[in-house]
Amino acid sequence: MNLRKYTIVLLVLFAVATTMSCASVFGFIDTNKISLGMSKQQVRDAVKVRPDNIVSAKTYPEGAMEIVQYSIQSVSEKDKAVYYWLYFLNDKLLEWRTLRVKNGLPDPRYEDGIDYVYQTSVKTSIK
User: Fold this and answer.
1) What is the pLDDT of residues 37-67, one digit of tens each?
2) Residue 84 lies in a domain
3) 1 has a pLDDT exceeding 80
4) Contact 69, 52 (CB under 8 A)
5) What is the 3-state secondary structure (H, E, C) of the chain?
6) Which domain holds residue 114?
7) How many domains does the chain have?
8) Are 106 and 83 within 8 A, CB to CB?
């Protein structure tokens, strides 16, 4: 192969690699692929993205509850991000929320946190 063909092949490979890496960082989490009751590993396998943070964790009489976060940075606006908070009780998906953040500030509707979800989702389902 001559130099021109090598250059074209390298450019195509670079374009494919760049597109694939940006899809996981700048894409979205397809919540159609997850369902309540899935384990953390099943969710990770379904969305094909690693979570980037455990936002909160707490032990309740019914078991351990964790909020696992997936973050997606906006491609068009650098100051915007989308956070997916997935609430797990005993490693089973209980609930999820999509939080939109602009200028570093979350939507105030999501300030209620782990205790609120426990009170509204776990305690009410036990009664």
Assistant:
1) 999 999 999 999 899 989 889 999 999 999 9
2) yes
3) no
4) yes
5) CCHHHHHHHHHHHHHHHHHHHHHHHHCCCCHHHCCCCCCHHHHHHHHCCCCCEEEEEEEECCEEEEEEEEEEECCCCCCEEEEEEEEEECCEEEEEEEEEEECCEECHHHCCHHHHHHHHHHHHHHC
6) 29-126
7) 1
8) yes
Q: Report yes or no on whether pTM surpasses 0.70.
A: no
Distance, CA of 112 to chain centre: 19
The residue type found at 93 is L
Is residue 99 in a domain? yes
CATH number at residue 96: 3.30.1450
Domain assignment present for 11: no
17 inside domain: no
